[in-house]
Amino acid sequence: MKPFGYERPVDLAAAVTLLAERPDARVLAGGTNLVDLMRLGVERPGLLIDVNRLGMDGIEPMAGGGIRIGAGVRNSDLAGDIGVRTAFPLLAEAVLAGASGQLRNMASVGGNLLQRTRCLYFADTSKPCNKREPGSGCSALAGSSRELAVLGASESCIATFPGDMAVALSALGARVEFQTERGEHVVDIDDFYRDPGDHPELDTTLPPGAIITAVHVPGLPVSARSTYRKARDRRSFAFGLVTVAAALEVDDGIVQGVRLALGGVAHRPWRARRAEAELVGRPVAVAAIERAIDAELSEARPTPENAFKVPLVRRLVTGTLLRLAAEDGR
Ligand code: SF4
């Protein structure tokens, strides 16, 4: 591993100043992804800035029934918070669907948002990868792509975002708060993540020198009836092949409100707005749901290895919404 420095600033202003002065620095919270990548030689920072003592570890109520989750909150604490479990069950379920108990005890909310793709070639420094080494090529295009994207990919990269929590946050319309030397900023989570385009080395729109400080989750009545489902190769400690975060409000068998986001299908958490628009005002029935999800997937471009994801999305979304509707009727 390349030698690196270590600093533990005493407050957020000092951390932001240090990060601005050192473009080769990386922010360290739980380190569950960053340190692995450093061991592999994928990340080679000259300095780690430890933000664990900056007091960003609270979950606070916001106006309108929303919550502000500090970026340093550990995934286990978020999943176990009674307010989160009651008002945003899909968020707690998504966090519990990710990683192992040990990793969740270490991993932070901010780090969870910024985790890197698990594309095999990204982690293998002997192979070309545009995300790791811009301009070097994409080994996955003619290689192993079973886990990779079917939506929003480019000729430069077909990687998927590997996380679960951010998929739930996308369905909830969350906002990401971050700090730079110019002050505090807040951005919608769907504007935080980006498609790969010609610059797959950039996972997000977070500007250089920024530190994520919190996530804002708005209070929505539809959130209380919500869930997260994950299709994966084994039940524990595996990344999702396809995941769905869903919230549903039904009256007399008709959809009044719905939130849908997909994981494991794109470079970003994929908010299924087209499907949502198709579903509102329609009965909760297999045919209507399949029509909606087919509209969402109309631009899917799977590889021969991952074409199975298209019918898997259809079945996972249909089963999830039917189950939520059945619970709504109890
Ligand atoms: Fe790299 Fe993206 Fe291609 Fe994977 S899909 S090899 S991450 S450029």
Please name the defining characteristics of this protein:
330 residues, alpha+beta, Uridine Diphospho-n-acetylenolpyruvylglucosamine Reductase, domain 3, five-stranded antiparallel sheet, four-stranded antiparallel sheet, 12 helices, globular, binds iron/sulfur cluster
Query: C-alpha Rg, in Å?
Result: 20 Å
Poorly predicted residue ranges: none
- Roughly what fraction of the amino acids lie in strands? 15-25%
Give the % helix: 25-40%
The coarse silhouette is globular
Structural class based on helices, strands and sheet pairing: alpha+beta
Q: Sheet with the most strands?
A: 5 strands, antiparallel
| CATH class label | Alpha Beta
The count of strands amounts to 12
Give the rounded overall mean pLDDT.
96
CATH topology: the name is Uridine Diphospho-n-acetylenolpyruvylglucosamine Reductase, domain 3
Cross-sheet strand order for the largest sheet? 4-5-8-6-7
Number of helices: 12
- Assembly annotation: single chain
Distance between the termini: 56 Å
Just name the CATH architecture.
2-Layer Sandwich
Spell the H/E element sequence: EHEHEEEHHHHHHEEHEEEEEHHH
The distinct ligands, each listed once, are:
iron/sulfur cluster
Number of domains as seen in the coordinates? 1
Describe this structure in words.
The protein is of the alpha+beta class and 330 residues long. The protein has one domain (56-330): Uridine Diphospho-n-acetylenolpyruvylglucosamine Reductase, domain 3 (2-Layer Sandwich). It is built from twelve helices and twelve strands. It has helices at residues 12-21, 34-40, 75-80, 82-87, 89-97, 101-106, 109-113, 165-171, 189-192, 273-279, 286-296, 309-328; strands at 5-7, 25-28, 47-50, 59-61, 67-70, 175-180, 183-188, 211-217, 226-231, 242-251, 254-263, 270-271. The strands form three sheets. Strands 4-5-8-6-7 form a five-stranded antiparallel beta sheet. The protein has a four-stranded antiparallel beta sheet with strand order 9-10-11-12. Helix 5 packs antiparallel against helix 8 and helix 11 (286-296) crosses helix 12. The radius of gyration is 20 Å and the shape is globular. The mean pLDDT is 96. Iron/sulfur cluster (SF4) binds next to loops.
